Amino acid sequence: MHNAWFAPPQPITGCFEFEGTNHNTRSFEPVTFREIEETLKSTSNTSAPGSTGIGYKILKWALTAAPDEMTAIVKASIKLGTHHPRWKSSLVVVIPRAKKPSYSDPKAWRPIQLLDTLGKLIKKITVKCIIYEIGRHNLTPLEQFGGRSNSSCYDAIASLTHDIQTAWKKNLVASFLAVDVKGFFDHIHHDRLIYVLWEKGFCTQTCEWVRSFVSDRRAAIQLDDYVSTLKPINIGLAQGSPISPVLACLYASEPLERMIEEPSYSTSHTKSKQYKWPIGPRVYVDDHGLLSIGDNWETNNEHLAKAAKRLTDLLNKIGLKIDPHKSEIMHFSIRRNEKTPPPLVLNIYGTRTELIPPKEGYLRWLGAFLDKKLSWKLHTKVMNRRGTTILSGMKCLGNTIRDLTQQNRRTLYLSCILPVLTYTAPVWFRPDKQQKHLLDPLVKIQSEALRWTLGVFRTTPLPALNILAHVPLIQEYISKLMQGYALRLFRLPLLSPVTNWIPSAYIPHTLRAKGKAAHIPFARPHSYQPQFKPSKVTNLQRLSGYMEPTTERTYPFANHNAPWAADLLTPPYMGRITIKSDPPPKEEQKSLASNHNITWNQAKSSKRTLIVYSDGSKNLTGNK
Fold first, then answer.
1. Where are the alpha helices (DSSP H) in 474-538?
2. DSSP-assigned letters across all residues of 309-334
3. Does the CA dihedral 303-304-306-310 come out positive or negative?
4. pLDDT per residue over 424-436, tens digit each?
5. How far apart are CA 416 and CA 414, in angstroms?
6. 532 pLDDT band (50/70/90 cuts)?
7. HSE-CB for 415 with a 13 A CA cutoff
8. What is the pTM of this model?
9. Which of 165, 188, 272, 548: CA 20 to 30 A from 501?
10. Which of 146-150, 383-387, 541-545 has the lowest mean pLDDT?
């Protein structure tokens, strides 16, 4: 297993030596105590510890008992660019992958590295700063939906379905090739990773800390009761480390940038004109996708084969390879009597591979089950089965002697079942249609879960169950998710793939770009009226209709949102506002109220005064 997962690095061409800073290098920002405190608060006390057995609960106690010493350790580690050797030793726990023909193959197991919690705390603090700089300076393409903040699987799936539905409205067909990178985290070349960080302008302290983090690592593999000896690891990043996905996305950003800057094209024809459609790449960490749009399957397959060959060559230059056996093709069309598409022929690494659409009739990508017509029927059925399985497991948590309380059951349903049932629901839900065939499987499992939660009769009507359990109907909950997603559109960067496809009325006039980017297949629509022909717009455009175009747009990467930015509890803001909790004497109350009213009236009439409203519910300890 060790030799299969941590094989010697594949040689790659290029010089990755550097000294000092370049013209893009940004200054180093020291770590603050508030960063350490907030990061540690966000950790779970039940998280698995590493080989030392020290969990986050002990670290929280240590920060309270010795704040200066803990702060000094974290600050010194990051500022000096040193990751302690004790934090580099990991215990690799292997988990069997489902439905594998033979478990004698190491690929049938998933390695998870358990690391020391103090080292993980420092990684969490560092990765927050790196993620902020990625968003602030656009260090990775926005078509990479992983390894950055304000981005998610929903965005990748929404952008894909939008392009497919827009192609349908132009009487075109779409073909999507899903490509998986083989051993993505295990084949990161360390020297090139440090060079990429330096080239993208990260400070010397961050580059040296990452160099120390990835070098001289050791791991022991545990399988059942057997634990191997510690052996060195000279390549890759630890799976399970909070910083690994971010560093891996930075490492693999160059192939995606090349695919965007110089896109491949597919074609379609009319009687008088030929159209060129860019093959738009979209990636979530190591899951790549290529979408080709054209008149027929043959044209799409031809251009997809060329784009896949180009992507393979670009990844090969940085030491990464795709897994042809995990690649899948799916053709999307709403045409009637469409002929069976031919197989997609790929020539990868000298091997001929033929891909046909899955026999099951769907493609699974990022947890969504996509069929030929984007009907989402199978997706909701699968979510229903998963919810049923989780509910069956919950019923085993109690018996007739001792059982869970109704409050605990409700918490389990809201946290474990409801998110599963409504996964990707904002992408497929349409308020203008009943969609009973999609909602009924979800309503069924919700009614069963609420009957278990409340312990009522089977004949109790569903509306009564929702009222008693204080749980909204599925339709109402999905509408709430859609409103939240629509509001989130106003926090995305203006060049985000999702923002590029919402109507231009939602973009400030002074910030609208002329034309469209070369890798974007379709131009942005000008406006959208929710009450006008809802079937003529895509789901993504329909989502934007939940909010008014005049909604305030926020920028999550502003200076005051930086992890190291000062807040009202730190200098220079500390002490500017004084709140006296003790009531004044009775003889002073009238004069105090009079002075307060005068100050309030002056503040309301002054344009230089910022008025902030608060309910005063937060005490000095930070608890509500």
1. 474-488
2. HHHHHHHHHTT-EE-GGG-EEEEE--
3. positive
4. 999 999 887 888 8
5. 6
6. very low
7. 7
8. 0.84
9. 272
10. 541-545
DSSP assignment string, 236-259: S--TT-TTHHHHHHHHTHHHHHHH
Q: Token match 């090139």: residue?
A: 192
Instruction: Provide the pLDDT for residue 624.
Output: 46
280, two tokens: 């738009």
Alpha carbon distance 218, 237 (integer Å)? 12
Given a contact cutoff of 8 angstroms between Cβ atoms, the answer to whether 47 and 224 are in contact is no
CB atoms within 10 A of CB 507: 17
DSSP string, 546-597: TS-TTSPP--TTSGGGSTT---TTSTTTTTSS----SPPPHHHHHHHHHHHH
Q: Which of 438, 542, 548 is nearest to 490 (CA)?
A: 548
Give Cα separations from 579 to 199, 588, 604, 620 (angstroms): 48, 17, 20, 10
Instruction: Please say whether the beta carbons of 250 and 135 come within 8 A.
Output: no
Take residue 376 and report the two structure tokens written for it.
Answer: 């989402």
- The token pair at 204 is 């010397």
- Is 231 in a helix, a strand, or coil? strand
Joined together, the tokens standing for residue 181 give: 């990178």
Which is it for the CA torsion 609, 615, 621, 624, positive or negative? negative
Q: Which residues lie across from 322 on neighbouring strands?
A: 181
User: How many residues can be counted in the chain?
Assistant: 624
The one-character DSSP state at 9 is P
Residue 490: strand, helix, or coil: helix
Q: CA-CA distances (angstroms) from residue 166 to 295, 524, 539?
A: 14, 11, 10
Question: Which amino acid, one-letter code, is at 599?
Answer: T
The stretches of 172-330 forming alpha helices (DSSP H) are 190-199, 204-214, 244-251, 253-261, 297-317
pLDDT of residue 108: 82
- pLDDT for residue 605: 81
8 A C-beta contact, residue 521 and residue 169: no
